[in-house]
Amino acid sequence: MSDEKKVKAPKLADPLNASIDPATQQMIKRAQELGVETVFDRAENMKPCNIGVQGTCCKNCSMGPCRLPLPKGGIEGEDTRKGLCGASPNTIAARNFARMVAGGASAHSDHGRGVAEVFLSVARKESDDYCIKDYDKLLAIAPHFGVDITVDVDGETQDRDMDEIALEVAEKAMNEWGKVDGECLYMKRAPKPMYDRWKELGVLPRNVDREIVEIMHRTHIGVDQDYKNIIKQATRACLADGWVGSMIATDLQDVLFGTPTPVQSEVNLGVMKADHVNLILHGHEPILSEMIVAVCQSQEMIDYALSKGAKGIQIGGICCTANELAQRHGIPIVGTFLQQELAIITGACDAMVVDIQCIFQNVANVAKCFHTKVITTHPIARMEQNNVLHIEFDEHHAKEDATRIVKIAIDNFQNRKVEVMIPDNKEPQIVGFGVESIEYALGGTFRGSYYTLNDNIINGRIRGLAGVVGCNNARTKHNESHITVIKELIKNDVLVLTTGCSAIAAGMAGLLTPESAAVHCGPGLAEVCETVGIPPVLHMGSCVDNSRILLAAAEVVKAGGLGKQISDIPVAGSAPEWMSEKAISIGHYFVTSGVYTVFGVTMPVEGAPVFKDYLYNEFEDIYGGMWDCEPDPVKHAQKMIAHIDKKRKELGIDKARERVLMDMAARQAIEV
Ligand code: NFS
Predict the structure, then answer these.
(1) Going by CA atoms, what residue is nearest to atom 9 of ligand 1?
(2) Domain assignment present for 23
(3) Which of 358, 545, 578 most suits a substitution to test ligand 1, by most atoms within 8 Å of the C-beta?
(4) Does the CB atom of residue 450 touch ligand 1 within 6 A?
(5) Last residue of a domain, which of 225, 257, 289?
(6) pLDDT on residue 325
(7) What residues does 628 pair with on adjacent strands?
(8) What spacing in Å lies between the alpha carbon of 583 and ligand 1's midpoint?
(9) What's the N-to-C CA distance of the chain in angstroms?
């Protein structure tokens, strides 16, 4: 036998099994024809570690990694598994879970801090490139920071100077990451009984950074060894994410760039244009991308693009940057997390500009096979490959940086070397719903109230609400679970609120249009959507905008008739194809805010059944919400519907009650 080892050719993904989306299937095939590897192929060749999947691999010190898989057939009698230090499977799984929360909460919250820093520099008038676009929103959020919006002048109440308000809000907001005393101010935006419960349980966050640091400390070897106590800290940190870091990110982005209102847009790879400069913005923060949009719309840049032979500049977004730009400007969305490599494989991506989070390092390798310039822009997110340009973005010279980047994209238009192939597929969509616009859609300027929504829930036209959010995961068929879960929900009259890549998936499947209601919804939801003119699936923005879903739920409570806290209302959460630590943090703040939340794929708790039972069952008595996992998307949706029905029953609205217009005879019959 020869010494030469036989090297097996890597397996290739079957495009039809990899995604339900024809454009994605077409581009996977195209990549394979060109010999360019994508995540779909890699998923065929690297299988996940079974022990890590169970959540019971501990690598928090170098005596390990200690691996504690669940024995085949489960545990009979006492569970004697332990790591070298004696850590139990519950401790290990809880530590790993808490560290995922820390990772996710830090990502959202550091994004929030970045936005707050830009807002502070605007309030201090250090930057001319940005300004406050939404003063109403500034006035709406100021009281939550304890900032007065009026002043008393000689016994008369007068409006306070806007610049003063902005500066004080900016300083107070920044303080939430590291203040010494007290608790995070935004926690009081939750319904009071929930706030009181958090206080009683001792999980109100003190400041964002501290809660994340404390997770890292507690999960170091030899510190916290009680899974319930570890999870208590994870709860504090995730609440600091959802109700503070993410919520401040959303609010200040709205103040700076405008609060979204429903706007028409398009989605999928087909939004790219062969005869235009295609500039793709990928990542999360809208700070840079907002400026790039403004620069691209300038006549100077349009003329420059024309001078290079292009017919114009097509901007497109990927991941949450896409959602941010779509909801404020109607900028088309190119695709989800799993389509990032495919956008380059079209051969028409002249520049892919990235900032932070969810960016595959492999986009740089794919770009080597094409003319695409990959440009990193954030000091904390660089790439090692030498074909990547780094242009560090700074809000103090934002316009200059953005102009440089746009010019690079335009100059690169003439360098295309591989035949361009852009799929035809794109769908129209309405995006940009939020707390304010739902209220407006349901009641108009003067009658705007969540009571119309509540009324439709009480009378049974709308069975309940669902937040379907989160990522794609190459371990599952791209978009299949998102779409199956959402269709099952709306078929059963559940109104869906969506964010992140799930929202993009919904758009790609044509579910973000009012017309889709007649095709896919049960009769009650279809009637409401038709009357009001809204889609049955409401695009609420990016993943930090899950804070909008929390606030919408709080508004439903406030409007009355559906209980006193979020856990009372018929609502459920879902992340059918989750993959990121951010998703775990979001799931945990949904749960601990009172929402029954089902994840797809797998959950890293299977190796620790006692810990799993704590999260999946015992939690309901503590927070009103609990975790669950169901990879089968139909069963997944059915579990959510069963929970919604349980809540309807508890509220006594399980039998549909129509408001009947009574004539005199009917009234007299009652009075008798
Ligand atoms: Ni959310 Fe947005 Fe998508 Fe998942 Fe990534 S883009 S912050 S983490 S993959 S939904």
Answers:
(1) 471
(2) no
(3) 358
(4) no
(5) 257
(6) 97
(7) 598
(8) 8
(9) 101
Helix, strand, coil percentages for the chain (3-state, nearest 5): 50, 10, 35
Residue 491 identity: K
Cβ partners under 8 Å of residue 151, min gap 6: 157, 158, 159, 160
Task: Write the pLDDT tens digit of every residue in 585-631.
Answer: 999 999 999 999 999 999 999 999 999 999 999 999 999 999 999 99
Of 430, 119, 501, 136, the C-alpha closest to 290 is 119
Question: Does one domain contain both 144 and 204?
Answer: yes
Instruction: Evaluate: CB of 319 within 6 angstroms of ligand 1.
Output: yes
Residue-range definition of the domain harbouring residue 244: 89-257
Give DSSP secondary structure letters for 254-313: HHHH-----EEEEESGGGS-TTSEEEEEESS-HHHHHHHHHHHTSHHHHHHHHHTT-S-E
**Residue keyed to tokens 């169970």:** 54
Token pair in block for residue 292? 């790039």
pLDDT < 70 stretches in the chain: 1-5, 443-448, 656-672
Question: What is the per-residue pLDDT for 3?
Answer: 52
Give the burial class of 200: count Cβ atoms within 10 A of its Cβ; 0-12 exposed, 13-18 middle, 19 or more buried.
exposed
> Which of 219, 238, 257 is where one domain is finished?
257
What's residue 662's pLDDT? 57
Q: Helix 286-296 vs helix 319-329: angle between axes, to the nearest 10 degrees?
A: 50
pTM comes to: 0.95
d(CA 405, CA 399): 10
Q: Residue 19 carries which DSSP code?
A: B
**Paired sense of beta strands 464-468 and 494-498, if any:** parallel
* Cross-strand partners of 313: 277
For 28-68, what is each residue's pLDDT tens digit?
Answer: 999 999 999 999 999 999 999 999 999 999 999 999 999 99
Query: What CATH number did the domain enclosing 135 receive?
Result: 1.20.1270.30
**Same domain flag for 494 and 371:** no
Question: Of 485, 549, 553, 552, which Cα lies nearest the Cα of 520?
Answer: 485
* Helices and strands, counts by H and E, the chain: 29, 18
Q: Are residues 632 and 506 in the same domain?
A: yes
Query: CA–CA separation, 247 vs 240, rounded Å?
Result: 9
CA 471 to ligand 1 center in whole angstroms:
5
Q: Is the CB of 481 under 6 A from ligand 1?
A: no
* HSE of 550, CA atoms in CB hemisphere, 13 A: 33
Binding site membership of 323 for ligand 1 (Cβ less than 6 Å): no
Instruction: Name the residue of 327, 359, 471 whose CB sits within 8 Å of the most ligand 1 atoms, as the mutation to test its pocket.
Output: 471
Q: Is the CB of residue 314 less than 8 Å from the CB of residue 274?
A: no
Say what the pLDDT of residue 74 is.
86
